[in-house]
Give the backbone structure.
Amino acid sequence: MSRVVLAMSGGVDSSVAAKLLLDAGHDVIGVFMRHGEQTSTACTSGQQASASGVASLPIVDPGLSRKQGCCTAADAADGRRVADRLDIPFYAIDFEAEFGRIIDYFVEEYTSARTPNPCVVCNNWLKFGKLCQYADSVGAKYVATGHYARLIPDPTGGQPPALCRGVDRSKDQSYVLFGLDRSLLDRFLLPVGGYQKSQIRDIARGLGLPVAEKKDSQEICFVTQGDYAEFVRGRRGDVDTSGDIVTTDGHVVGRHGGLENFTVGQRKGLKVAFGEPRFVVRLEADTRRVVIGTRDDLARTEMTANRTNWLVDPPARGFRCRVKIRYLSQLAAATVEPLPGDRLRAVLDDPKHGVAPGQALVCYDGDRVLGGGWIE
């Protein structure tokens, strides 16, 4: 029996993951990750939560901040109730300093006319990063989450597991895991990836878990009030990103209040009238211009990405695969060529719309994630 640190968000997926890990014979420790952002309901208890009837485990400080901050109190309470029902230890740990790094990235990307993906960064830095340090401090072999993705062991045992798409294609989250450290893949467990979402809810109902009908979170966890643009404006200081709205041929057709209000492919909120729909085609950090055009102007068949991360042996030459350019986009056939300096070029068979700098480009071979990078 191996000890496992499980990231418990208070949702149905990580809650059922705890049960699946227990059924597999593991010794499970539930951890709720506090981000420290103010919410409408503040956490009033400064004590660590733990399951009743279970002796508290000695927690060795892994270098993580224990400063008490605000949290999503309802989610923490849901996680604690599930842990009580399953009779496992549960700890709420303050990751405010670490989330601060993710928030800085989020604000900087929007200010620089890029569209960030904080979920990918959080997985890389925290859920499968800092939690590994925490797991080491409590003698845990594995770190687990409720992501809908699968880790398939190498049949020869000579290579790390293959990261693959979840069985439930409508919930697949393999895209946001492309940046994981390949050398650590054999330390990770993804218990719900082999199930349909409906099955996970059925398991939760059968166990009488209080989160069985809880809705999935659709928002970025640290943007607890207002919208993304308001959040960015509140944290970027005196940086002014307002400017002109221009057409692809350079005609000024309006003004905007800040680049953070826009992303490539956006149609709503432009506040300019034409005879046909207009979309954000490009954001320019240097001129602070929002460039708009027709849907045809959005089409791209070629793009580059930097800061690549490979979950297979890094390719030495071009190869055929399928790629995703956003979390909710469909897989597209492409030829990918590695470039010097941890970069790649992707040439698509058919044009895609809404290719946004700052988003991840992830390569697949069938269900397997090969790796990817950040769109330039």
Summary: Residues 64 and 130 are 8 Å apart (CA to CA). Confidence is low (pLDDT under 50) at residues 39-71. Residues 118-137 form the longest helix (20 residues). The radius of gyration is 22 Å.
